[in-house]
Write a structure and sequence with these properties.
The chain contains 6 helices and 14 strands. The protein is of the alpha/beta class. The protein has one domain (about 1-235): Ribonuclease Z/Hydroxyacylglutathione hydrolase-like (Metallo-beta-lactamase, Chain A, 4-Layer Sandwich), CATH 3.60.15. The termini are close together. The structure holds zinc ion (2 copies).
């Protein structure tokens, strides 16, 4: 399994960062995990086409996590009429997809399957996907991807909560949002100390920080495992 960072920024525009998005690849499937502004360019830089994507896992419906999906769907609806596509997301994802269909103004492929939380584990090719409800100002979900004895957990946007610790238990890679600056506390986002705390409690091997809108450094982070700050097109192989 390979994780590639397609974007690691927030909603604010900077020259350096796309909004948030990721790609999970195995030999059998390609799964988008959020797809904010600029992520379609990153996907293209990897040599992937829209038609290569088998599933889209969406943490929540804020535009910095979904903005490039409108263009994605225009391409997919026009060129992938017979291709199956799985969409997984929080409460409201079914209704949101209807809105996207209204905006794209093209015939919808018939093989699209949508899974809305709450849900039990689902299989996407050779990947098992489980979810947990997160703490944000809109319905939000975190994802755990498991394949061949390895795992990646992605928080999406969230404030501190117990569900992310449980979902991330002993994972190989924990990809956490780190919107807040050191010492900054809010109910809807995490700061570096809280990220470090979650990774330590969950006993994860590698902590990757993403979704940051400032010059994030590794100071004030007591986490003992491997600590990485996400950059666009960074890959982690498991
Ligand atoms: Zn958000
Ligand atoms: Zn966000």
């Amino acid at each position: 399994m390979r994780l590639t960072i397609l974007g690691c920024g927030r909603f604010n525009i900077t020259a350096n960062y796309n909004s948030t998005g990721n790609l999970i690849e195995t030999e059998r499937v390609n799964i988008l995990v959020d797809f904010g502004r600029g992520c379609l360019y990153s996907l293209t830089k990897l040599g992937k086409q829209v038609g290569d994507i088998d599933a889209i896992c969406i943490s929540h419906l804020h535009p910095d996590h979904i903005a490039d999906l409108l263009t994605f769907f225009q391409i997919f609806f026009n060129t992938c009429a017979d291709k199956p596509l799985i969409i997984v997301g929080p409460v409201g994802i079914q209704q949101w997809f209807k809105t996207m269909v209204d905006l794209v103004l093209e015939p919808v492929p018939t093989k699209i399957t949508i899974y809305e939380q709450p849900l039990t584990a689902i299989e996407i090719g050779d990947v098992t996907v489980t979810t947990a409800v997160m703490k944000h100002n809109v319905p939000a979900t975190a994802f755990r991807f498991e394949q061949a004895g390895h795992s990646v957990v992605y928080s999406g946007d969230t404030g501190m909560n117990e569900n992310i610790v449980s979902l991330a238990r002993q994972t190989d890679v924990l990809l956490l949002e780190c919107s807040n600056q050191p010492g900054q506390i809010s109910a809807q986002h995490l700061n570096p100390e809280q990220c470090s705390d979650i990774a330590t409690q969950a006993k994860v091997k590698q902590l990757v920080l993403t979704h940051y809108g400032y010059d994030l450094t590794k100071t004030n982070m007591p986490f003992n495992g491997t600590l990485v700050i996400a950059k666009e097109l960074m890959t982690i192989d498991l």
